[in-house]
Write a structure and sequence with these properties.
By secondary structure, the chain is of the alpha/beta class. The chain is built from 19 helices and 19 strands. It has a 5-stranded parallel sheet, with helices on both faces. Helix 9 (268-281) runs parallel beside helix 10 and helix 13 (409-422) crosses helix 19 (551-564). The radius of gyration is 29 Å and the shape is globular. It binds adenosine-5'-diphosphate (2 copies). One adenosine-5'-diphosphate binds at residues 405, 432-433, 436, 445, 450, 453-454, 475-478, 513, 515, 524, 526-528.
């Protein structure tokens, strides 16, 4: 195989937008007097890569000419291939004016850069969606996100004061120049980049090793840690798997692990070409491009947005010009009888082959606390994944009781709490009446105060659930919209709404606190069910009848539901 030199067509010089250290203080003082804009996480990611030269030769958020050329011809105005528009959208009406400097800040208001505004222009969401993503379908995550972007783009020279700060995995956050340096030290002319947004299993290990060997090169393991597809495995977990693999299973002289703070666009074929340019800048001259590279999944009609090999085809087309050769991601399968991986096309018919899909990993294995087999993933990786994705009976859950005062929420919640603890769950009971003596002390019963009360309980419940605990909440929570907010805060798949459906007459008859009598006499105003509405849930997970069932029977109905959903282990499954 002929060797490609490690120099991109524009001479390989990396763009550097970072101001020299001796100018930082002065520029900071100047910037503090400027009008400023706060930019999105995506823009911050773009800025970080651009500032250090990862998008070279691009040195600014695109101006109008670049923007249109990129849409129409996948090129910058100067002729270099560039497939993805990198823009800084803002809302009109802000104090952004032509030929003036503005400070660019992140969501936390930290100063990142100063831009001299040289262009302000309109852009069209539909035009960009159609040309770059080939669709207007809102199922495409970027098309959906773009609806929220500002209507004007701004562009101009950038002076970067500070790169976004990262406190995690600092030793792996390498700039293009640092990555090139490491690759150079490894000493092999060829460099094969592997782009990934998923945990790495044996098949990926096998594939990257074969690719690297085929060109006698170094592997640049280059996972994306900026923004990926919503719902992906979080990068903390992923990076732990990459580190474990590099430490134990790769030849140290043949691999460089570097984290890429890229905000992916899920643009399939165009994204593959973009990845080639980026990896070129980081020092690679080969890129592994798989089936459905950077694919966003299926559209609203259930069809994949891009064909499985569209990305490989487009990448091939620009390969020479960019100077990156494509190594197609061959489909490998595991042959249990021979204990090895082989390319699908080389497997003789009738040979036993094994594979596990991503869904199976999550549902059949991790969800049930089953260990992933060693032929599929290295034990270190299996361990990290099982820590991040514990089985359901170790995941958090919130049981939310709602119903009129006196319906039986507290009574039933108390019984349930004991049953859950008997079954090995750690429970926090958040009872409305009790919460109102501390967390929500001072709040009354106006609509606003009640919403605040419920949101506070919801916030605490969400934190408990996030830390894998069980939150049992019992408050009247009379308003549907607020209960739905809480459901979202906690996470819909971890939220069990229990409607204690006791009719008003029965609650009023019970009146164990004497409040209904007071409300009827007008001594309490805005009492739920009397002169303030109770909006019953439309579709609660569980509805309880307290007339024909005792609190204990009802608590067992809830427990059975939780067992069925896997949140509580059946006693017979325990050790
Ligand atoms: P809430 O928390 O909904 O305001 P409580 O649980 O404090 O209601 O009060 C319910 C009252 O009704 C208690 O006095 C309880 O003993 C009585 N009660 C009678 N039957 C039931 C039942 N099947 N379930 C729950 N409570 C019942
Ligand atoms: P909410 O969801 O409305 O904030 P909580 O469960 O926190 O309800 O508090 C409701 C409890 O407070 C009732 O069970 C009742 O004992 C008492 N209470 C006092 N005033 C009212 C009122 N105006 N409406 C409903 N409950 C009230």
């Amino acid at each position: 195989m002929d060797k490609v030199k490690l120099i991109p067509p524009y001479g390989g010089k990396l763009v550097n937008l970072i101001v020299p250290p001796e100018e930082v203080e002065e520029l900071k003082a100047y910037a503090s007097r400027l009008p400023s804009i706060q930019v999105s996480e995506r823009v911050v990611c773009d800025l970080e890569i651009m500032a250090t030269g990862g998008f070279s030769p691009l040195d600014r958020f695109m101006g109008e000419e670049d923007y249109h050329m990129v849409l129409e011809e996948m090129r910058l105005a100067n002729g270099y291939v560039f497939p993805i528009p990198i823009t800084l959208p803002v809302e009109p009406g802000s104090d952004i004016k032509l030929d003036q400097d503005i400070a660019i800040r992140n969501a936390k208001n930290e100063l990142l850069a100063v831009m001299t505004v040289e262009e302000i222009y309109e852009w069209s969401r539909d035009d960009m969606a159609q040309k770059v993503f080939g669709t207007l379908d809102l199922r495409h995550p970027l098309v959906a996100e773009m609806s929220r972007w500002g209507r004007l783009n701004i562009s101009g020279g950038l002076r970067v004061i500070s790169l976004p700060k990262h406190y995690d995995f600092q030793e792996l956050r390498l700039t293009p120049a640092q990555t090139r340096q490491r690759l150079e030290e490894a000493g092999h002319e060829n460099v094969v980049a592997f782009q990934t947004r998923n945990p790495m299993h044996r098949v990926h290990e096998e594939l990257t090793k074969r690719a690297t060997e085929s060109v006698d090169g170094t592997l640049l393991l280059h996972p994306v840690v900026g923004m990926t597809k919503p719902g992906d495995v979080d990068y903390f977990t992923r990076v732990r798997t990459y580190k474990a693999l590099v430490r134990r299973y790769y030849n140290p002289g043949r691999v460089v692990l570097s984290l890429l703070p890229l905000a992916m666009r899920m643009a399939g074929p165009r994204e593959a070409v973009w990845h080639m340019i980026i990896r070129r800048n980081y020092g690679a001259n080969h890129l592994i491009v798989g089936r459905d590279h950077a694919g966003p999944g299926k559209d609203s009609a259930g069809k994949p947005f891009y064909g499985p090999y569209d990305a490989q085809k487009l990448a091939e087309k620009y390969s020479d010009e960019i100077g990156v050769k494509i190594i197609p991601f061959t489909m490998l399968v595991y042959l249990p009888d021979e204990d090895r991986y082989e390319e699908v096309t080389k497997v003789r018919e009738g040979t036993r082959a094994a594979s596990i899909s991503g869904t199976q990993v999550r549902e059949e294995y991790l969800g049930n606390g089953r260990k992933l087999p060693e032929w599929f993933t290295r034990p270190e990786v299996a361990e990290i994944l099982s820590e991040s994705y514990p089985p359901r009976h170790k995941q958090g859950v919130c049981i939310w009781f709602t119903g009129l005062s006196g319906a039986g929420k507290s009574t039933t919640a108390e019984v349930l709490t004991y049953l859950l603890m008997e079954h090995g769950r750690q429970v926090t009971l958040l009872d409305g009446d009790v919460v109102r003596t501390h967390l929500s002390k001072g709040l009354g019963f106006s609509k606003e105060d009640r919403d605040t009360n419920i949101r506070r309980i919801g916030f605490v419940a969400a934190e408990i659930v996030r830390h894998e605990g069980t939150a049992v909440c019992a408050a009247v929570s009379p308003y549907e919209a607020t209960r739905n907010d809480v459901r979202r805060m906690v996470g819909a798949d971890r939220f069990v709404e229990v409607f204690v459906d006791t009719p008003l007459e029965v609650c009023e008859q019970r009146d164990h606190k004497g409040l209904y009598a007071k409300a009827r006499r007008g001594e309490i105003k805005g009492f739920t069910g009397i002169d303030d509405p109770y909006e019953p849930p439309f579709n609660p997970e569980i509805r309880l009848d307290t007339i024909n069932h005792t609190p204990e029977e009802n608590a067992r109905i809830i427990l059975d539901y939780l067992v069925k959903k896997g949140f509580v282990r059946r006693p017979e499954d325990e050790g």
